[in-house]
Amino acid sequence: MKQNCYVLSVSLCFCFILPGMKQNCYVLSVSLCFCFILPGMKQNCLCFECFLMFLLHFAWNEAKLLCFECFLMFLLHFAWNEAKLLCFECFLMFLLHFAWNEAKLLCFECFLMFLLHFAWNEAKLLCFECFLMFLLHFAWNEAKLLCFECFLMFLLHFAWNEAKLLCFECFLMFLLHFAWNEAKLLCFECFLMFLLHFAWNEAKLLMF
After folding, report:
1. Residue 52: is its pLDDT beyond 50?
2. In the chain, pLDDT over 90 holds for what percent of residues?
3. Using an 8 Å Cβ cutoff, are 112 and 135 in contact?
4. Could you tell me which residues come within 8 angstroms of residue 186 by beta carbon, excluding any fewer than 6 positions away?
5. What residue ranges are annotated as transmembrane (predicted)?
6. Among 113, 105, 195, 120, which Cα is nearest to 165's?
7. Residue 206 CB: number of other CB atoms within 10 A?
8. pLDDT, tens only, 175-207
9. Helix H or strand E segment including 49
C-alpha cells in the first residue's frame, strides 16, 4: 500500500479472495492472503509476472479449485481490465505460453477460438491484418499443428464468414501473399484449385 500496490491488493481481496471464501475456496484464499498479499504489501517483492506465475503454480497445479476457463477469465479480467500492466501482445504471449505449453488442456482450434473471442470481440486493439499475422506466426511457425490447407480453411471461416472485414478481392490477395510468396507449400496448380473451390463452390462471387 505504501508502494503503489493498493489497487492490486484491494482488487485481489474484493474481486477474488472474498468471493472465493464464500464459494468453498478457503485454502486458495488463505494461501493467497498469506503467501502473496501480506508479504507483497510490506516488501513489494513480487512483480506482476511473478504473481501470475504464482497463481498458475498454486491455483492450477496444487489447489485444482478453478476450471481452466474460469482461471483464464480471471486473468483476463484482472490483468487486462484492472492492472493494465501488460501490453496486449505480451499478454497474448503469456496466455500462449501457459495454455499451450504447460496446461495442454485446450485443443488448438479451441484455443484459437478463445483468442479470437477476446482479441477481436472485446479488446479491439489489433487491426484485422495484424491479428491474422499474429495467428500466422503462432499457428504456422511455432505450433506446426495444422496442415496448411486446414489453416487456410480456418482463416476462410473466420475472415470471410464472421468478420466480413475484407472484400473478396483483398482476401484473395492476402491468401496469395501468404500461400504463394511466403509459405511456398502449394504448387501453382494446387493453389488455383483451392481458389476455384472457395470462390466458385462457397463464395459464389465469381461468374463462370
Report:
1. yes
2. 0
3. yes
4. 148, 179, 180, 194
5. 51-76, 83-100, 112-136, 143-160, 180-200
6. 120
7. 12
8. 555 555 554 545 556 556 655 655 555 555 444
9. helix 48-55
DSSP state of 37: I
CA-closest candidate to residue 198, choices 163, 159, 146: 159
Alpha carbon separation from 106 to 4, 73, 117, 174, 179 (Å, rounded): 36, 14, 15, 28, 27
In angstroms, rounded to a whole number, what is the distance separating the alpha carbons of residues 113 and 128? 15
Find cell 516488501 and name the residue.
43
Confidence of residue 152 (pLDDT cuts 50, 70, 90): low
Cα distance between residue 78 and residue 12, in whole Å: 8
By the 8 A CB rule, do 92 and 115 touch? yes
All cell numbers assigned to 178:
501468404
C-alpha distance from residue 191 to each of 156, 178, 180, 187 (Å): 14, 12, 8, 6
Cα–Cα distance measured from residue 192 to residue 182, given in angstroms and rounded to the nearest whole number: 16
**Alpha-carbon separation of residue 110 from 16, 72, 113 (angstroms):** 26, 13, 5
